[in-house]
Automatic annotation (TrEMBL):
Heme among keywords: no
Cofactor(s) listed: FAD
Family matches, as Gene3D superfamilies: FAD/NAD(P)-binding domain (3.50.50.60)
BP term (GO), one: sterol biosynthetic process
Residue span, Squalene epoxidase domain: 285-379, 380-465
PANTHER family for the chain: SQUALENE MONOOXYGENASE
Name of the featured protein: Squalene monooxygenase
Similarity comment text for this entry: Belongs to the squalene monooxygenase family.
Catalysed reaction equations from the record: squalene + reduced [NADPH--hemoprotein reductase] + O2 = (S)-2,3-epoxysqualene + oxidized [NADPH--hemoprotein reductase] + H2O + H(+)
Membrane topology: Multi-pass membrane protein
Keyword Transport: no
Stretches assigned to the FAD dependent oxidoreductase domain: 135-165
């Protein structure tokens, strides 16, 4: 059984998140993972996100740094973003994420996929050969690492990628690429990585609740016909990205396990790693990027993650099954928490069951089988939404709290109205609209819509109290944005 722990919280300003959807199979092989916990309920695979809009505008006036680092976060994924400190007493341009272990303070939230130390010349001139044969070391060749390696390699930098296992991953993460993520792939020249892997187009979501259903589509009218979401086997996508990066002559892809960072006077100079056979090697470069996944053994050198695991995903693959709405993700607002369905190939559908609680039911003693048979199977079939974290996770889960149940009902009916009421939230979920203000407005709109339902035709003291709770919940969730 595979178990992953997720973090929750913030990311670097101006960057987006990598979707990190966690695998049960129909051949009784069961695995589990926590659901993707998003700092914001905007989930899409952003492999670029170079800088914030402010930085983009300023870059028009001044030359960019010599190593414009695309920081993909993972959603899956996400980057631990405690603080960014400028290195002191050094003659070269340098941004450091915790320049020493003592400086690595603060609560780290998010999916904690990557960390970076950026060090390069101020004037942007090419490095001399005296600086070494490598400009950048990338630890990890997942979505983040492979994308960074390709982009920096394409720009002419010498990149050394060290990945602990170059075989095709078999995981239930990063399987649904939102349209905003596909646009980022185009920006980076990586859009062909979703080709030849039997990827399926995703055009929106279908929601099911208490025998009712509604469909919401991505607002793609202003984009070319090839722009849509994509769903696929994560491992196939990863291998395509690795092949793309390794195709560049100045990108070296090596299998090895990084054991520690090389530090000198609080500055990261490179890494220590072991290759097959246990032989230890060292690699040095002016820039070291760590993006070695949720099981990173290097993160503790840079930060102290505060892990919160509210629930786990249990996943299975359904073969030769037809979904009610082709080319759509399906969201079942079940009791006690959502269930997701989406295609990952032309013959396979992924089902993700959210199991609340800090501990996943045991497979060995039959707890998992019993949970699926007695809790999940008796419920009507429906589908789930891509975003199961943060505020939306709480909205979609059944609760003994009347106000939360009313918010859940109001959210479903609000999306069923269609038009701007569904286009706005779906644009946020698909990564086509990254503006937090839009999210805040829709949260309040759902709360007010719910209050209106309560007060008509005749208000009562109890309904007034629940209405006040709805407004309070709306404010609380907006504060998370």
């Amino acid at each position: 059984m595979a178990t992953n722990k997720a973090n929750s919280g913030g990311t670097f300003d101006g960057l987006s998140d990598i979707i990190d959807l966690p695998e049960i199979r129909d051949d009784d092989e069961v695995s589990s993972a926590p659901p993707p916990l998003l700092p914001k309920p905007i989930r899409y695979l952003d492999l670029g996100g170079y800088y914030s809009e402010k930085m983009k505008k300023s870059s028009e006036k001044t030359p960019p740094p010599p190593l414009p680092l695309p920081l993909p976060l993972s959603p899956l994924l996400a980057l631990p973003a405690p603080l960014i400190r400028r290195g002191r007493g050094r003659p070269r341009f340098c941004y450091v994420l915790a320049s020493s272990k003592k400086e690595a303070k603060g609560k780290v939230e998010g999916d904690a996929r990557s960390a970076a130390v950026i060090d390069g010349p101020v004037d942007g001139r090419p490095r001399s050969e005296d600086d070494g044969a490598t400009d950048v070391i990338v630890v990890g060749a997942g979505v983040a690492g492979a994308a960074i390696a390709y982009v920096l390699g394409k720009d002419g930098h010498r990149v050394h990628v060290i990945e602990r296992d170059l075989s095709e991953p078999d995981r239930i993460v990063g399987e649904l690429l939102q349209p905003g993520g596909y646009l980022k792939l185009i920006e980076l020249g990586l859009q062909d990585c979703v080709e030849e892997i039997d990827a399926q187009r995703v055009l929106g979501y279908a929601l099911f609740k208490d025998g009712r259903n509604t469909k919401v589509s991505y607002p793609l009218e202003e984009f070319s016909s090839d722009v849509s979401g994509r769903s696929f086997h994560n491992g196939r996508f990863i291998q395509r990205m690795r092949e793309k990066a390794a195709s560049l002559p100045n990108v070296q892809l090596e299998q090895g396990t990084v054991t520690s960072l090389l530090e000198e006077h609080g500055t990261v100079k490179g890494v220590v790693y072991k290759v097959k056979g246990g032989v230890e090697s060292k690699a040095c470069a002016p820039l070291t990027i760590v993006c070695d996944g949720c099981f990173s053994n290097l993160r503790k050198s840079l930060c102290h993650p505060n892990v919160d695991v509210p629930s786990y995903f249990v996943g299975l693959v359904l073969k030769n099954c037809e979904l009610p709405y082709p080319n759509h993700g399906h969201v079942i607002l079940a009791n006690p928490s959502p269930i997701l369905f989406y295609p990952i190939s032309s013959t396979e559908v992924r089902c993700l069951v959210d199991v609340p609680g800090p501990k996943v039911p045991s497979i060995a003693n039959g707890e998992m089988t019993n949970y699926l048979k007695t809790v999940v199977a008796p419920q009507p079939v429906a589908s789930t939404i891509n975003t199961l974290a943060g505020a939306l996770y709480k909205v979609f889960c059944a609760s003994s709290d009347e106000a939360r149940n009313e918010m859940r009902e109001a959210c479903f009916d609000y999306l069923s109205l269609g038009g701007v009421f569904s286009n706005g939230p779906v644009a946020l979920l698909s990564g086509l609209n990254p503006r937090p203000l839009s999210l805040v407005l829709h949260f309040f709109a759902v709360a007010i819509y719910g209050v209106g339902r309560l007060l008509l035709p005749f208000p009562s003291p109890k309904r007034l109290w629940i209405g006040a709770r709805l407004i309070s919940l709306g404010i609380k969730e907006c504060n998370r944005v």
